Amino acid sequence: MDDRTLVIVRGAGDLATGTIAKLVKSGYAVISLETEAPTAIRRTVAFSEAVYTGKQQVEDVLGVRVRTPQEAYALAMEGIPAILVDPEGESIRQLHPAAVVDAILAKRNLGTNRGMAPFTVALGPGFTAGKDVNVVIETKRGHDLGRLIYEGAAAVNTGVPGMIAGYGAERVVHAPTAGILRARVQIADTIEKDAVIAVIEPERRAGICSAGGCACDLQTLGAVPVRASLTGLLRGLIRDGYPVTKGMKIADIDPRSEEYDNCFKISDKARCIAGGVLEALLRAGVLP
Fold first, then answer.
1. Measured between alpha carbons, how far is 10 from 89 in angstroms, rounded to an integer?
2. CB under 8 Å to 194, separation ≥6 — which residues?
3. At a CB cut-off of 8 Å and minimum separation 6, what does 273 contact?
4. Which residues, including other chains, have CB under 8 Å from residue 234's CB and lie 6 or more apart?
5. Strands, sheet with 232-237, edge to edge from the N-terminal-most edge strand
6. Which H or E element spans position 190?
């Protein structure tokens, strides 16, 4: 398998999805490589959901999970983004893409290198352009968002979300403890500050019945509530039943309650980054 229009995107979260959709609409054949258990928060606009559901519609583009590199290639050639579980990128050698885009956004390099394809791109910090990949795309909000970096690295991650309607860090909810998340609301719901949006059940364990010494079923210890940090729209929430770690980002709240439709749209940030990726490919001569 070898095609000059084939682009492999590592990752299919909401920012990666912006790039995948842009490239597909621009005429590229796109295959996305994901993990067995993606942790996207903005699941309504992330092709990574196809890992769980088989298909994921984002705006007017449908992403479909496939099982083999051969299936992925065939589907991508039809103009449909294929989602393949391959976190290590083992299929890249078999597929021979014209370009590889690292859109994992792990804030560190998880193995992407210039030897993977004739042209390589990475989103955000953790990569050095000219060393790890050919081009790095800036992902920090501001005047440089989407800028192409041919030497050096993107801005260091601050850990502070961009400001929306005067709110920054408050927009993000983190897990207060480790355990299994059980959602109490849905993405796009309007929620009030301090409302319980989920509970986290600690890991289950076997118990012994004090009454008769018999083996009891697994029992759940006390669940910990997760409360909304502000009033607004629930723009993102990790999947119900997902095992979370303490401090893990699990929800995203938009203080603009009137922006309901945005829960189902690719974000301005994702579109800007996608434009940078497209520009990088075109400037390198990777043409659809």
1. 8
2. 227, 228
3. 15, 18, 19, 123, 137, 139, 145, 146
4. 185, 186, 187, 188, 189, 190, 191, 197, 228, 251, 252, 253, 263
5. 172-174, 249-254, 232-237, 190-191
6. strand 190-191
pTM of the model: 0.89
The two beta strands, 6-10 and 99-102, are parallel
Residue whose token pair is 């050639």? 77
Amino acid at 203: E
As a whole number of angstroms, the distance between CA 56 and CA 48 comes to: 8
Read off the tokens for 84.
Answer: 């393949």
d(CA 278, CA 21): 11
> Is residue 78 within 8 Å of 100, Cβ to Cβ?
no
265-269 LR contacts (CB < 8 Å, sep 24+)? 265/45, 265/59, 266/14, 266/17, 266/18, 266/21, 266/45, 266/58, 266/59, 267/14, 267/15, 267/18, 267/42, 267/45, 269/15, 269/18, 269/139, 269/141, 269/145, 269/162
Tell me how far apart the alpha carbons of residues 225 and 71 are, in angstroms, rounded to a whole number.
42
Angle between helices 268-283 and 14-25 (to 10 degrees): 50
- 285: nearest Cα among 2, 5, 1, 24: 5
- Residue recorded with tokens 């398998």: 1
The answer to whether the CB of 204 falls within 8 A of the CB of 218 is yes
pLDDT tens for each residue of 244-275: 999 999 999 999 888 899 999 999 999 999 99
**What is the chain's mean pLDDT, rounded?**
91
Q: Which two tokens stand for residue 85?
A: 């579980």
Tell the residue number behind the tokens 């995107």, with chain if given: 9
- Pair 193, 183: CB distance under 8 Å: no
Of 165, 109, 137, nearest to 18 by C-alpha is 137
Residue 2 is predicted with a pLDDT of 59
